[in-house]
């Protein structure tokens, strides 16, 4: 599933192509909104909220989408043949005289009143890349369920919005604690340090083509543990391991990340 920095980048591309321009093409290919016609309306902005995308349209409307595992928005010059998905995978087309945006495999696509946006994003915690970012509040939410494994708490968008599976594993490694460690067993300063680090990493990566959490410049070492099962931990040299945490694959180093590992099957 795309993480907050990826969604921010998608929103920026859509905003650059659509904002301030009048729609000359509108096609929402979901049954509930198939008859909606947005042509003649100006797109005001496209804004990310955690992993959600909000395209605000003249007349008090918002087109809300979420990419989840394999959704995608792609932008092409109007008249150019779109690439990156089959015709039957299209769920939305928004076009103007210069650019056309195509939404493929979008599992969430709905048109709502802008005044009702809180209905779809009001449950989210502080947005790591949003103007409302509040590290102290995010830390308070992270620590709110002491018995919950850290990895699950980090993925819960109600705590802080924008973290996905990659950052979950990388943040636990940087804090030198196991993703299975209950948040109540973390040192008191760790929740806020995790929130601050998450914000720093997403800010640093939001405009990069290749995500990086490491500080080394050596090729192939962009991430510390994610996707590196069986390879040497860059901190202690022991093999990085992977296991399921909830329904998500998690990477960690049992040598230098304090706390329990996964329960035996």
UniProtKB/TrEMBL annotation:
**Keywords annotated in UniProt:** DNA damage, DNA repair, DNA-binding, Glycosidase, Hydrolase, Lyase, Metal-binding, Multifunctional enzyme, Zinc, Zinc-finger
Q: Which Pfam families match?
A: Fapy_DNA_glyco, H2TH, zf-FPG_IleRS
Q: What is its EC number?
A: 4.2.99.18
Annotated ranges, domain Formamidopyrimidine-DNA glycosylase catalytic? 2-103
Q: Which reaction equation describes what this protein catalyses?
A: 2'-deoxyribonucleotide-(2'-deoxyribose 5'-phosphate)-2'-deoxyribonucleotide-DNA = a 3'-end 2'-deoxyribonucleotide-(2,3-dehydro-2,3-deoxyribose 5'-phosphate)-DNA + a 5'-end 5'-phospho-2'-deoxyribonucleoside-DNA + H(+)
Domain FPG-type, residue spans: 224-258
Name any Gene Ontology BP term.
base-excision repair
Cofactors demanded by this protein: Zn(2+)
| Gene Ontology MF annotations | class I DNA-(apurinic or apyrimidinic site) endonuclease activity; damaged DNA binding; oxidized pyrimidine nucleobase lesion DNA N-glycosylase activity; zinc ion binding
Q: Where is the signal peptide?
A: none
PANTHER family per record? ENDONUCLEASE 8 (PTHR42697)
Which family does the UniProt entry place this protein in? Belongs to the FPG family.
Kindly provide the name given to this protein in its UniProt entry.
DNA-(apurinic or apyrimidinic site) lyase
From what organism does this protein derive? Streptomyces showdoensis
Q: What is the lineage of its organism?
A: Bacteria, Bacillati, Actinomycetota, Actinomycetes, Kitasatosporales
